[in-house]
Amino acid sequence: AYDRAVLGSDILRVRFAKKGEKLVTLDETEQALTTEDPLICNGKDEAVGLAGVKGGLKSGISTATTEVILECAAFDAVLVRKASMRHALRTDASQRFEKSLDPTLTEVALKRAIHLILKLCPDAKLEGPVDTVGTWKPKKVVLKITPENICSKIGIPIPTPKIIAMLNSVEFDFQKTGISL
User: Fold this and answer.
1) Which pLDDT value is given to residue 134?
2) Are 86 and 34 in contact (CB under 8 A)?
């Protein structure tokens, strides 16, 4: 979340830091950036955060904030881990991004954040579009498994109808082949 007034723009961009560029993070420490550091920048191309690691002081939320811009992103796990280590900034954000988050979950997370804001601040108004940037496509994973294979991996017998019910409960698509119920 960014303070819209402090951000000075409704635009957010991602780029790598320029040689010699610096950023004061939310913990009020100045970071000497390298050209390998991924940044979140405002519409004026000013760094407002170390992508996936820590926000910048100039865009932080305060008690005076009346308008926010929400960013929900998925960043390259290796880039985030290296930037986190390079700046000795081990944060909740960096720990999450280092796990190669599924980019398809960003929309779910954004909708949840909006829901919580509206629940906590009933007079809040949602303005502006939700923009998606990027060309990623979710990869389809196909597994060929049998009830016997599942039970041998888990170590306990589970009836096939229960396996099917569990797969349905977590919204897995599957096809039954050669199974009689």
Assistant:
1) 72
2) yes
Q: Write the single-letter amino acid at 156.
A: I
List beta partners, residue 110.
Answer: none
CB neighbours (10 Å) of residue 30? Answer: 10
**What separation in angstroms does the CA of 100 have from each of 35, 80, 83, 96, 159?**
22, 10, 15, 8, 34
- For the chain, state the CA radius of gyration: 22
Q: Is the model's pTM score more than 0.85?
A: no
Backbone φ, ψ for residue 49 (5° rounding): 180, 150
Neighbours of 54 (CB within 10 A): 23
Residue 97: what are its φ and ψ, rounded to 5°?
A: -65, -30
CA dist., res. 98 & res. 79, Å (int) = 8
Per the CB < 8 A criterion, the answer to whether 136 and 103 are in contact is yes
Residue type, 35: T
* pLDDT score, position 123: 93
